[in-house]
Design a protein that fits this description.
Elements lengths: L3 H8 L4 H11 L3 E4 L4 E8 L6 E6 L8 E3 L4 E2 L6 E8 L3 E9 L5 E4 L21 E4 L7 H8 L6 E7 L4 E8 L13 E4 L8 H10 L7 E5 L6 H5 L3 H18 L9 E6 L1 H12 L6 E5 L26 H8 L6 E7 L5 H13 L3 E7 L5 H15 L11
Parallel strand pairs: 12-13, 12-14, 14-15, 15-16, 16-17
Antiparallel strand pairs: 1-2, 2-6, 3-4, 3-7, 5-6, 7-8, 7-9, 10-11, 11-13
InterPro entries: AB_hydrolase_fold (IPR029058), Esterase-like (IPR000801), Ig_E-set (IPR014756), Mycobacterial_A85_antigen (IPR050583)
Protein name: Enterochelin esterase
Organism: Streptomyces fructofermentans
Length: 398
């Protein structure tokens, strides 16, 4: 069924210019409720006569953008193309358009009527610069909204040279609002896959200004692109670098706490895997882990085959789950979120079952979406509320 506004365009009640003006003022996609928990969502593009358009969303089996096979349909007598899909009304998701010209080359771009939000540049390039759809019953992310409206001041940038790894990486440090002496002992979170455009400092500032968390520093650690997959996959050398080189480097420069309970290690996807594994193996350094859609199905010996090759496959217990199962319960706290609609949620549920069974202080959340920064950017507020509430504060606010 066509969206009512598209019907007005089709019948000539609205001119193309009026329709464009509406899109500029209201944005896209267009959403029409069809039942208590479903909506029709209409995406609109104006690509040019010789182009075809398809949609890709960060929901589905692929880590990244999953293509929707149906092409946008032309609206007769206008330059517009539209695609209407029925969806759950509680979804939040990143999406892009893919335009294909007569030469057959695809160009990926955000929805021209729904520009990427603030903090949309990501360390993993294929996720960057996407539009975000927030359907009417999606869980609100109020602290992300506040962060987008009032971003944190500029970060202090530096380069950390690692003797043990023989490389160097960018590090960005953001101190919390307020004045702190050299004798302060601030809690802090180290976030892997850091970039200077990350939402974490601004989300932190919004929570500190509201009086909900302790003032804490945010340290964003860059991953050299060529080394990312090697560094973050349960790599003892990288974890040792964090403990033996990054931490002393930070303590020499900033008034940070040395209490493990005041230190959190955070990451998304492979970064979440690394954070969970590092905290388990270095509990006297890191007392908190923030795992956002961690890749906890990873095992170095897991290989997939096709055809007859599949008959040789062995499926070991994933590394993170196996290590938490085998080790004595460590004195660490674990915040863990994952998308209900991403392929890794089965392993996340398994990890949560292990953590709960072994008596960890843990909080597990599932959100209505996929492996998606659109959720991670805002759910990070819940993680900070969990890790660093004000003294006497109610951790259930997370």
């Amino acid at each position: 069924m066509a969206d009512p506004l598209v019907e007005k365009l089709t019948t000539g009640e609205w001119s193309p210019e009026r329709f464009r003006r509406h899109l500029r003022e209201r944005g896209t996609p267009l959403v029409e409720r069809v039942s208590a928990d479903e909506v029709d969502v209409t995406f609109v593009d104006e690509p040019g006569d010789d182009m075809t358009v398809t949609l890709a969303v960060v929901i589905g089996p692929r880590i990244g953008f999953n293509p929707i096979g149906t092409e946008f349909a032309p609206v007769a007598g206008t330059p517009f193309r539209v695609l209407t899909l029925r969806m759950r009304s509680d979804l939040r998701f990143s999406y892009v358009f893919s335009r294909r010209g007569p030469t057959g080359e695809d160009t990926r771009l955000p929805d021209p009527s729904n520009p990427p939000p603030r903090f949309s540049q990501c360390s993993v390039e294929r996720f960057s610069g996407a539009s975000v759809a927030v359907l009417p019953d999606a869980l609100p992310l109020p602290w992300l909204d506040r962060a987008e409206a009032r971003p944190a001041p500029a970060l202090e940038a530096a380069v950390l040279a690692s003797e043990s790894l023989g490389d160097e990486r960018s590090v960005w440090v953001s101190m919390p609002p307020g004045d702190f002496s050299d004798q302060s002992a601030l809690p802090f979170v180290i976030h892997l896959d850091g970039t200077p455009e990350h939402s974490a400092p601004s989300v932190r500032d919004a929570l500190v200004r509201a009086g909900l968390i302790r003032p804490c520093a945010v340290v964003l650690v860059g991953q050299p692109a060529a080394q990312r997959d090697k560094e973050l996959l349960c790599n003892p050398a990288f974890s040792d670098m964090l403990v033996q080189e990054l931490l002393p480097w930070l303590h020499r420069r900033y008034p940070l706490s040395r209490d493990p309970g005041d230190v959190a290690l955070a990451g998304e996807s492979f970064g979440g895997l690394c954070a969970g594994w590092t905290v388990l193996h270095h509990p006297t350094t890191f007392g908190n882990a923030i795992l956002q859609s961690p890749s906890c199905g990873y095992h170095p010996d897991l290989r997939w085959g096709t055809g007859a090759g599949e008959l040789l496959r062995r499926t070991p217990v994933p590394t993170l789950i196996a290590d938490y199962s085998a080790a004595e319960t460590a004195p660490v706290r674990v915040f863990h979120d994952v998308g209900e609609l991403e392929s890794s949620n089965t392993h996340s549920r398994w990890l949560d079952h292990v953590l709960t069974g072994k008596g960890y202080d843990t909080l597990y959340r599932e959100f209505a979406g996929g492996h998606d920064y659109a959720w991670w950017r805002g759910m990070f507020a819940d993680a900070l509320l969990w890790c660093f509430p004000l003294a006497g504060g109610d951790r259930s606010q997370a």
